[in-house]
Design a protein that fits this description.
The chain has a single domain, classed as TIM Barrel (Alpha-Beta Barrel), CATH 3.20.20.220. It is built from eleven helices and eight strands.
Length: about 300
């Protein structure tokens, strides 16, 4: 059993070398639970820098998120990070979650505002007795618990941000509140990631920003996820995958190739590592990892 579990992700990423990490989500049923733990066991031998567990809309997966994160800390050699959102929780409830995570040996949290209960793009209404912004949550965690805090970053700006500059200012507020690193939503073009890093640096944001990567394995689901984030698929990507829309196997192969090229471009651009959105499956992530031109 590794002692890595007590490390700070911020420290690990800043120490040099390239980090790589995997993201999982709490499954809805027993079958999904089996798939999740099989994927975790298949990815553990790769020795990821850390793994993260997402938090459902409106806090709907609170207990499962905490339980999975605790089990990873207890039963694996991997360093787990739990996501935590402002949505649907008072500060007293958030303090209770933080205490539970700490008692289970979890030392890293990703602090998020979270999507409104009615979904992305709908009006944001803070919970009574809760917090309004991710920066507020970062500050609360730093005041309440002894945890390393990461935050989200958005290569093309958060869908609710008025502009890219306003989005960068929001990231700066999270940095000023005590966040030690950031993980982006899925990057669609390496140039978008580079632009984000440049905007952040211009404001004095000095923490590592890790790009998130998700391969295109299913065209409809990828388009849906991109739309939910308020973005559009790049034309150059669509030109490669649309001709394969009726050939799922060929589309998947091209999706893996596109993701691998993107990973190489991100690392070429100086990214401190890669964060893979696994969708609780390991095969595609392992294929990309094996194909990278620049080892991480």
């Amino acid at each position: 059993m590794s002692n890595n579990r007590s490390r700070s992700i911020g420290d690990l990423v800043r120490e040099g070398g390239r980090s790589f990490s995997f993201e999982f989500f709490p499954p809805k049923d027993d079958e999904g639970e089996q798939i999740l733990w099989r994927s975790i066991s298949e990815l553990e031998p790769l020795g990821p820098t850390f793994v993260s567990v997402t938090y459902g809309a409106g806090g709907s997966t609170r207990e499962r998120t905490v339980a999975i994160t605790e089990r990873i800390a207890r039963e694996t050699s991997m360093l787990p990070m739990a996501h935590l959102t402002c949505v649907g929780h008072t500060t007293d409830e958030i303090a209770g979650i933080l205490a539970e995570l700490e008692s289970a040996g979890v030392r890293n949290v990703l602090a998020l505002r979270g999507d409104p209960p009615d979904g992305p793009g709908t009006p944001w209404v803070p919970t009574d007795g809760g917090l309004t912004y991710a920066a507020d949550l970062v500050a609360f965690i730093k005041e309440t618990a002894h945890l390393t805090v990461g935050v989200a970053a958005f290569p093309e700006g958060h869908r609710d941000a008025e502009s890219l500059d306003a989005d960068a200012q929001a990231l700066k507020a999270k940095y000023d509140a005590g966040a030690e690193f950031a993980v982006t939503e899925m990057v669609l073009r390496a140039s978008d990631y580079v632009g984000l890093v440049e905007r952040a640096a211009a404001l004095g944001v000095a923490f590592p920003i890790i790009p998130g990567v998700m391969p295109i394995l299913n065209l409809a689901s990828m388009k849906r996820m991109v739309h939910m984030s308020g973005r559009e698929m790049p034309a150059e990507t669509l030109a490669r995958i649309m001709p394969l829309a009726d050939d799922p196997a060929a589309l998947r192969t091209e999706g893996i190739t596109i993701a691998t090229e993107l990973c190489d471009a991100l690392l070429d651009a100086g990214a401190p590592g890669l964060h893979f959105y696994t969708l609780n499956r390991s095969k595609a992530t392992r294929e990309i990892f094996a194909a990278l031109r620049i080892p991480v």
